[in-house]
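Bumping with the actual sequence this time:
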Amino acid sequence: MFEKTKYLISSRNINSPFAKIFDRDIIEKYKIRFNEKAPVAEDFVFCVKYLLLCESVLVFNTPVYIYDQTNSDSLTRSRKKNLIDIYPIVFNEVYNDIIKSKYTEEEKDNLLLIWDKLHVDSFGTCVMEEIKDSSLTKHEKLNEITVICDKFYSEYKGGYGYSDIIHYIMRLCIKYKWSKALYLLGKLYIKLKG
C-alpha cells in the first residue's frame, strides 16, 4: 500500500476527487471533511487524508473523461491572491496526518520528503501568481516575491532532504530570498510552457 500512496501523492494523481470512488464508511468513520479555512486545495487535502487512512487502493491508469480548461476567466485560471497565507494551512494539516499515519518511520520520512517537494512547488505557484500580474512593475514583483520568501520560510523551514536539483535550488532561493533568481526561473518556466 505504501508504494501506491507514494505514487499517488508524488504524481499528484490524488489531487482532487473527480474520477475517484470513495468508501463512505471511511469518510464517516474518520470524519474526513473539506477544510473551510483552505478555499484552495481543500479537495487535495481531503483526498490525501482519505488515502492515508485506506487499507487498499485500486488504481486504473486510463482516462475516463475529458478535462477541458479553456475558459481564461475560470477560477483555476484567474489571479489568486494570498496563496502564501493559505498553503501553510493545507500543508501543515497533511503533515500532521502523515506523522499520525500507519506507516513506518522510514515510510513517513519518505512521504514527508515528497510532501516538502509539493510544498515547495506550491511556493512556486505563489511566485508565478506575482509574475503573471500585469498590474505590477518588475520591481514590485521582486518585492512581493521577497515577502513570499519570508512568509514561506518562517512557516515551513523543511529539513527532510531534497528530491531533486530543482527542489534544492528552490529551497536555497527561498532561504536566502533570491527574488531575482526566482523571478527569472518563473519567466523561464512561462517561456518553456508557452
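The C-alpha cells above came from a reply further down the thread. The mean pLDDT is 85.
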